[in-house]
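Task card 7
Instruction: Convert sequence to structure tokens.
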Amino acid sequence: MLDLAVDFAADFCLEDAEAKSVFHARLLNAVGQAIVATDANGQITFWNSAAEGLFGRKEDEMLGKEATGFLAEVLPRLDSGARNCLKLGKPWTGEFAVKCRDSSYRAVILSCSPFFDDDGKLAGSIGVITDITEEKWMQDALIETIQKIEDLNDKMRVVESLTRHDVRNKLGALNGRLYLLKKKVAGDAGLLGELAEIELISKQILNILDFAQVYVQVGSEELIDVDVERSVAEAAKLFSSLNHAQLVNSCRGLTVVADSLLRQLFYNLIDNTLKYGEKVGEIRVRFEEEPTQLRLIYEDDGVGLSNDTKLKIFSEGYGKGTGYGLYLIKRICEAYGWVIQEEGIPREGARFVMTIPKISKEGKTSYQITSSI
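Output:
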């Protein structure tokens, strides 16, 4: 095998200058980029097959032709500085629109470098022309598409904002009318029940609007280090009352990579407890660190969830209210790279566990603990 390798290598050790020249020409003709070489006088001495394809001119037509004259023909926007570099044998690179023989234009990157003889004198220059028309088209198409998406998003944000504002106003007017009607029919239990149902629907619509407002924010903010203890405390302050439940916030010293929606996450969990936990005496938020992850735990001592319910609670639209509270929590967790599960025991309380990897998919630390509890 070694003898065969030596024999194979020997075939390429061409001592004859003419044979070397032919071999090198074949190599340059094999590449996909257009390659043009000139001598010290600026006359074209080499024109590979890719150049023939790009410019529509055969090699025998171009050899001996003055390069600057040809460039002036195909690159009308070539500045004088680039021409002088070519004449003086200085390297330069530029992006141009090349005019082909059929009068079409191709986007190219033209790189020109000098080469010298054994005495250090300028022997000529070699230019490599890379056709980037397709890439340029794709880039322009991508930029145009991104711009269209941004314009569409701006329109949707405006429409969404105006719609939410107008609907809120209409709901306010509706609730005012409901209040007056309830006073007028105070003695009619049946009608009061119907009005209560209408009032409930009105509140549900308002909750859906609140969900939509928060949902559009998911994944839109830059993730930063967020103090968990503070986020829990701020979420709790948004409630006028916790219905006599005690909040035990055991997250001091813990920061996680998240955004402002972390407060919304805890707000939704507390709201869920207050609405459906029935008799809740304590709400606790704590964490447990493991070798490769951290478990951020929210739990209460309410009625908990049945095993059947556990499988559905994070589904869109599932639940007694709007069906979006826990779904939103799941989406927020996914934006952070977390996994949330319900691990409570039925009739003994709800227990939501958010698993946070120590190192994110981007290779960054997902949380820090600066002090022990």
